[in-house]
Backbone:
């Protein structure tokens, strides 16, 4: 998870950045509004959350919050030394998700971050369509299309395809695939049966099953979908 931290007090910023990284967050640190705007223009899709100091030397965290909320749906937390109701209400009305005043305890801020992210994850809408080249999966209807025409898959074939799409770009071993199919289907699927299902998926979805481009074999390791 990547967090944009905008704080002009370099001592506070350094301490926050260190603590966030220790908590396994990737950070982008800016000391002023101008550099933060540049980050938002080029890296906004990569960001998971923003932490903005309200009072910056060349602007306000309010302005940065407005940019974020107009272009994306990621959480924003304000940091400020100002502790009064007017500023709290203004920040929340602009779409801020939380508001913490200085001085603050690092553990409290980290707890607030986790709480905000949990709320967003619960609110996140499930992905309705998954695109894999000329293959489209409608997860709400449980249907698969190739070049606009529906492809009939068995329940286990469909489940196997979803396992791949949930791990795009990752190599999955045969053991991992067997474990995941078993967990959901409750049926015994052995190694030979897995080979049959992968073969059938390729025959139904690949343009040339003999030279698969969708479900690729990674020799000695397993299979991979996507890069």
Residues:
């Amino acid at each position: 998870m990547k967090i944009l931290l905008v704080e002009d007090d370099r001592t506070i910023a350094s301490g926050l950045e260190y603590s966030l990284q220790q908590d396994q967050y990737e950070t982008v640190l800016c000391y002023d509004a101008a550099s933060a705007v540049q980050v938002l223009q080029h890296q906004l899709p990569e960001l998971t959350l923003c932490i903005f100091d309200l009072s910056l030397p060349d602007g306000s965290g309010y302005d940065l919050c407005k940019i974020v909320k107009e272009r994306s749906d990621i959480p924003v937390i304000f940091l400020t030394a100002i502790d009064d109701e007017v500023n709290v209400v203004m920040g929340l009305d602009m779409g801020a998700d939380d508001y913490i005043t200085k001085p603050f305890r690092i553990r409290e801020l980290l707890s607030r971050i986790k709480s905000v992210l949990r709320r967003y994850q619960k609110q996140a809408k499930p992905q309705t369509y998954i695109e894999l080249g000329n293959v489209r999966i409608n997860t709400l209807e449980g249907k698969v299309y190739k070049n606009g025409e529906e492809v009939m898959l068995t329940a286990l074939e469909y489940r196997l395809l979803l396992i791949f799409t949930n791990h795009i770009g990752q190599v999955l071993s045969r053991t991992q695939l067997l474990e995941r199919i078993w967990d959901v289907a409750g049926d015994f699927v052995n190694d030979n049966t897995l080979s049959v299902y992968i073969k059938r998926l390729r025959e139904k979805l690949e343009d040339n099953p003999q030279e698969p481009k969708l479900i690729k074999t990674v020799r000695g390791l397993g299979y991979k979908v996507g890069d």
User: Anything to note?
Assistant: Residues 59 and 182 are 55 Å apart (CA to CA). Residues 106-123 form the longest helix (18 residues). The helical segments are 10-22, 33-43, 61-71, 85-93, 106-123, 155-165, 174-185, 191-205. The mean pLDDT is 87.
